[in-house]
Structure prediction request, 339 residues.
Amino acid sequence: MPDTQRRAPTIAQIAREVGVSVPTVSKVLNGRADVAAATRDRVERALERHSYRRRRSGIPPAGTGLIDLVFHRLGSTWSLEIIRGVEDAAAAARTSVILSELGGEHRPPRTWLETTLARPPLGVLLVASQLTDAQQRRLVSRSVPFVVIDTDGEPPADVPTVGSDNWNGGLAATRHLVELGHRRIAAVSGPSDMLCSRARIDGYRSALESAGIPYAPALVRAGNFYVEAGYDAAHQLLRHHDRPTAIFAGSDMQAIGVVRAAHDLGFRVPGGLSVVGYDDLPIARWTTPALTTVRQPLTEMAALATRMLLGLAAGAPPDVSRVNLATELVVRESTAPPP
Prediction:
């Protein structure tokens, strides 16, 4: 029979095909935890084969449902900017937000999925993290949409993602230092397993090579986007006999750590060392000196991702599934020509 005439299978038909009871299929569809993993997998695969989707009852009324906002790690001002963007967009739709934190991991554990499906939420926003294929299938089977903000890696083509132009941000930061006359420019990146970190360093490297400056791996340190990482990396770099005259930090928090290390070692910023950050967090304009940085539109990214998620929950897929917002160099007081 042509696909257009084929009727969707019932739960009973799925149960007979897999060799389980109807209540077992119902438990899988409702996210219940009391189903053996092997049985759940067989049922999920059957549901996927038949493109079975739990039907929604139309557009959720305003004020109902929750958005599950999932961070791989909380605790920085960067996180607060994301939360603010999500809250603003959710409040406009009279929808509430709950927070989940993965303890630094980039893949949610099974316990998170079971807890999430027990609610279930209107949708899931993942920040710097992704779902496994099996987790995606389970959310899809429950008609729970998901969107990724600032992905940690290359997401599947069909996963809606909102990020920013990290490569161009690294390029602009480094090109600014080159134009000031710096030739020995170091970088403190974020975690090497995150796509945004690698993209910023790729932009940094491209700016150097375009200016005829050889890329020196010894001048690049991997950090974790937090103050302590910038402080420790700057201590290593500035104690070197052929120290850099400028440092591009992969986050504002790391840049603050760099500035503190320079102060402790007796280097004035920017007179003895120029520093560029990344993100343009509110604190960047209040540091001493005020921080030159790359503005990443975090609240806009979060708000756009939230609106995409709400649209998916209402049955309206986004026109574009992969969005990268522009970054912008903001020049303040922490950069100057080399001494």
In short: DSSP finds eleven helices and twelve strands in the chain.
